[in-house]
Amino acid sequence: MDRVRIGVVGAGGIAQVEHVPNLLRLPALFDLKGVCDPSRTARDFIAGRYGIAVFESIDQLLEQPLDAILVASPDALHKEHVLAGLGHGLHVFCEKPLCYGAADIAELAAARDAAGCVLQVGYMKRFDPSYEAALASLPGSSKTLRHISVEVSDPDAWPFVRHHEWQRGQDIPTQLIDEVAAKQRHQVQRAVGLSLDPLSYRGFCGAYASAIVHDVNAVHGLLDALHIPEGQVVGAQLYAGGDGGHGSVRLLDGQALWTMTHLTVPQLPYYSERISLIFDDAALELEFPSPYLNHQATRLTIRTGDGHKLHSRDINSGYAEAFVEELKGFWSAIRESAPVRNTAEQAARDMTLLCGLAHWHAAHTTPAKTGALS
Length: 374
Ligand SMILES: NC(=O)c1ccc[n+]([C@@H]2O[C@H](COP(=O)([O-])OP(=O)(O)OC[C@H]3O[C@@H](n4cnc5c(N)ncnc54)[C@H](O)[C@@H]3O)[C@@H](O)[C@H]2O)c1
What we know:
- The protein contains 12 helices and 14 strands.
- Helix 5 links the parallel strand 5 (91-94) and strand 6 (119-121).
- Helices cover 40% and strands 24% of the residues.
- It has helices at residues 13-24, 40-50, 58-62, 78-87, 102-115, 129-137, 158-161, 174-192, 198-225, 322-335, 344-363, 367-370, and strands at 4-9, 30-36, 54-55, 68-71, 91-94, 119-121, 145-154, 232-239, 244-251, 256-264, 272-279, 282-288, 299-305, 310-314.
- It is α/β, with parallel strands linked by helices.
- It starts with a strand and ends with a helix.
- Helix 5 (102-115) runs antiparallel to helix 11 (344-363).
- The protein folds into 2 domains: 4-125 and 327-342, NAD(P)-binding Rossmann-like Domain (Rossmann fold), CATH 3.40.50; 126-321 and 349-370, Dihydrodipicolinate Reductase, domain 2 (2-Layer Sandwich).
- The structure holds nicotinamide-adenine-dinucleotide.
- Nicotinamide-adenine-dinucleotide binds next to helix 1.
């Protein structure tokens, strides 16, 4: 096997709980050369726990002999970190959201093409065996589709990672935090094309761009398999102080509707994430566990009926872990020229829809309730 020499940018929660241990679990595919993070606490944890070389900056990491980087830094730094990797001729795996807007993502796609490298986005659900089985179980036609619903109730990661060994780095200079916040404001404004009020800004960055983006991407994959073209946004709401994000999309000229809601409920350690497709005479339902509960199968239930009898079956496609499978996919794209699953173009489509939802929300919410973001 031709191992890919890889460096990880950002040693926060997702790197410590998933990417670093998962890369180390694939020694035939990856040679983890180092991790960079401005937090000394995070660096010390990685060096002590895994014995891996650590660096304070991405520039120091990029001086190492590498074939690829995995970007797990804060969202607003994805663009510059991906460009830095591609600029060094490296393949890049980047966590979602790749960037907030299609224009920024187009710059990354151009840099990817100039470098002739792989750029893969961290939408691990596309590698979930139950999601793959759902794609294979869809009817051949979209003629009877009526409704797609996405419903997520999410306490955030804490109940599912507190038993892991990990260490949050909170010793980052305030100036660095302020710089990232300023970059985020600039990128969101460029993406959405509007100055969002504080609630909408929080909801766009969190409920939409950080959370429901996974489901938007997953549904886009299902729509592609059904040959359903882009729909029109017909409703959106950012609510609950920005903890909630909702959207409605009209499909097939009104033959079907896609509704989606993500709500963060931090006091309730219960995770529920369901994607359902309702056809005239059938229903397909995916129920995902918290992503951090590795190797727990996603439930796929298919129901069919003839008006009187209901046939219901659960399809278990195994316990392969999506966070691990996406890394195998990245390796295959680099070493075997396998098609990239989760491209920049797909990310652009996801973010364009989410920006459209933010627009709809802003256009239908009175300024008195929202105020302007200073
Ligand atoms: N695929 C998923 O399900 C999933 C889950 C969680 C997070 N994520 C994504 O992963 C990314 C990281 O999220 P997280 O939860 O680990 O956040 P986090 O805040 O825990 O970690 C971010 C890390 O980046 C570091 N950092 C800050 N500036 C940096 C710089 N200039 N260079 C390198 N590192 C820098 C911070 O010190 C911190 O350790 C985000 O983009 C997030 O959306 C994806």
